[in-house]
Structure of Pentapeptide repeat-containing protein:
Amino acid sequence: MKPSKPFVMPPVRIIPPTLERQSESSKSLEEWLNTEETVRDLHFDKRTEEHMEYSYKSITNCTFSHIQFSACKLRSCHFTDVRFEHCDLSNISFAESSLFRVEFISCKLVGTNLPETILNHLTMKDCNARYLNLSMSKISQARFTSCDLRNSDVNDCKLASIAFENCELVESEFSHTPLRGIDLSDSHIRGIRLNLPDIRGAIVNTSQAMELTALLGITIKD
């Protein structure tokens, strides 16, 4: 009998957001959301958005640069072809929203809430995303590059074609999130919290494998 081949995650192929013909917005996002169901084709730059609470709104073909979001809740909203760059989205809530072709570049996402979201073709690069909450989300075609994801919640998620590249995953929660075929070998995973079935089939380096032996209930003796 031939040994079964190890599972290999399909390659991550991110489709970047289509950002075309955007006009510089003279109004805040809140002003637009007060009158429009869909906000589109706009560039927002260097402003503060405070205490926004909206549901079932759509934002498409928009760029947010150097925006400070404070005490905002955008529940069950739809984001398509959107880029956030150098924004502070700490503690904002995107609960039960969908993000399609969305980029977070050099953003602060400390404590940002994205539970029960659908994330497709997502890029997160050079972000401080400590305590990020992605619990119970469906994430496919996503790349996390050079991000600090320490103490984040990625539990009870369904992942497909995901890449973690040079990320800090120290003490993050991955319980009940299968990591089969996902390469963690160039990220830091010390203290990662998961169950034994979750880590089966994941790709790790030698030192990471030594750390994970505790999940097997064995002791290595020199």
About this structure: The first strand starts at residue 23 and ends at 24. The domain at 35-216 is CATH 2.160.20.80 (Pectate Lyase C-like).
